[in-house]
Amino acid sequence: MRIGELAERAGTTTRALRYYESRGLLPARRAVNGYRTYDDDDLRLLRQIRTLQDFGFDLEETRPFVECLRAGHPAGDSCPASLAVYRNKLTELDGLIGRLQSVRAQVGAQLAQAEEARAGLAAGAAEPRCELTQTLSQDAYATDDAYATYATDD
After folding, report:
1. What Cα–Cα distance (Å) separates residue 30 from each residue in 4, 33, 76, 82, 153?
2. CA–CA distance, 18 with 46 (Å, rounded to integer)
3. What CA–CA distance (Å, rounded) separates 1 from 23?
4. Using CA atoms, how far apart are residues 30 and 13, in angstroms rounded to an integer?
5. What is the pLDDT of residues 111-131, one digit of tens each?
6. In angstroms, what CA-CA distances link 46 with 13, 58, 100, 141?
7. Is the dihedral of CA 146, 98, 77, 38 positive or negative?
8. What pLDDT does residue 122 have?
9. Which of 57, 133, 142 lies closest to 95 in space, CA to CA?
């Protein structure tokens, strides 16, 4: 099949396919007329790449899965290198979850403090000052940075 058909069948763009080819993830075969040609194995490789990217893996993290499929394994995640990538991704996700849980707890505490101050204002107390703690701001930025790194594609 030609590049347009592969892109359509895989639900991606020809530009993405050329990029994958330039990164060595998709083979660069050409017919005598110079057109790129692909087969069902290439579609399988591409589907593996796209699925992993949908799960948050960056493009380079998909390489061991592609190499595993190219080596003839029925599934791209049956090789030791693929399993190592899974383990690393789980460790990364656990770290992100931990940071998000910490920020969530701090936001919850800040909300409780703000609601208490609002209740005091409604009861006629002096106007409360609304101040976020320095820790909350720092942790939120750290989590934003970690998420931005995680969510960025190659």
Report:
1. 14, 8, 25, 29, 28
2. 12
3. 20
4. 18
5. 999 988 888 777 776 655 656
6. 11, 14, 32, 35
7. negative
8. 72
9. 142
Plot region of 29 (φ>0 → left; ψ -120 to 50 → alpha; else → beta) = beta
Q: How far is the C-alpha of 128 from the C-alpha of 113, rounded, in Å? A: 11
* Rounded Cα gap, residues 139 and 100, in angstroms: 9
Highest mean pLDDT among 81-85, 128-132, 134-138: 81-85
20: number of CA atoms within 13 Å, CB side?
Answer: 28
Residue 146 has pLDDT above 70, yes or no: no
Nearest Cα neighbor of 21 from 50, 42, 5, 40 is 42
Percent of the chain predicted with pLDDT > 70: 80
Strand partners for 30:
36
Residue 154 has a pLDDT of: 45
> Are 89 and 57 a contacting pair, CB within 8 Å?
yes
Residue type, 70: R
* Residue found under tokens 């899974």: 86
